[in-house]
């Protein structure tokens, strides 16, 4: 659940929004992370593919590490895509003092988050803060005969890290919570952990769309988003002006390490990752989605 002043969060799915039936390809992305250049590129990619904002869904965390929290969030929301609230939105709306990820105190991720969260907190005005806080905690829709649920990290804990190498029981627990709140689903679309992947769990498929604001720790600057097609979900790479995004972070004094990750493609710390995913990657029991391009 969302931590600090955000309190107990939204139990059993919180407020939900149903989009009905969506036709044609659907674009799903996560973690714009205050990266204005990536947000602009994502809109361009959707327009090039002929996908209107009514068929674009964000898994949360419009705001995080980058230099332009207000401009990035407003750009995407004003464009008209649908977003759920990630832990960053809920923490900002609640006037909390950190991102609510629950990083180990004193860890590299904890120390870095203090800098970028304070930067974001100082730049989100009250109207935008209220707008972020009003975002739904879960979205449902039907696409090509399958019922989808969109969450951020977890249902009872919005900031839960669900990794591709986690045991089936972790996914089963979340699916049970989703269906308790929203009824039966065929596909779960998630975000938060920053790593795109797919797990087939019997009757339910779990797809993490990745994030557009930070590379997935693979040594390349391109970020990721998902596209739901007639052939099924696929991950696509997003190329954007990562050098301009890095320069904007440096100019804002956000030099705790994530600025360099935009160019190197490697996170400044691996302490948030499960041991088996540190550089060597996780290969046990999951299928990574192949990125196009």
Written description of the protein model:
The chain has about 290 residues and is α/β, with parallel strands linked by helices. Helices cover about 30% and strands about 20% of the residues. It contains eight helices and twelve strands. The chain has helices spanning about 35-50, 70-80, 85-95, 110-125, 125-135, 170-180, 240-250, 260-265; strands spanning about 15-20, 25-30, 55-60, 80-85, 140-145, 145-150, 185-190, 195-200, 205-210, 225-230, 230-240, 290. A six-stranded mixed beta sheet has the order 1-5-6-7-9-8, covered by helices on one side. Strands 4-3-2-10-11-12 form a six-stranded mixed beta sheet. Helix 1 (about 35-50) links the parallel strand 2 and strand 3. The longest helix has 16 residues, at about 110-125. It is globular. About 50% of the residues are buried. Mean pLDDT is about 90; it is low at about 1-15 and about 280-285.
What is the element layout, followed by pairings?
Elements: E1 16-22, E2 26-29, H1 36-48, E3 56-58, H2 69-79, E4 82-83, H3 87-94, H4 108-123, H5 126-133, E5 138-143, E6 146-150, H6 168-182, E7 187-190, E8 197-201, E9 204-208, E10 223-229, E11 232-238, H7 242-251, H8 258-264, E12 291-292
Parallel strand pairs: 1-5, 2-3, 3-4, 6-7, 7-9, 11-12
Antiparallel strand pairs: 2-10, 5-6, 8-9, 10-11
Helix pairs in contact: 1-2, 3-5, 7-8
Features:
293 residues, alpha/beta, 6-stranded mixed beta sheet, 30% helix
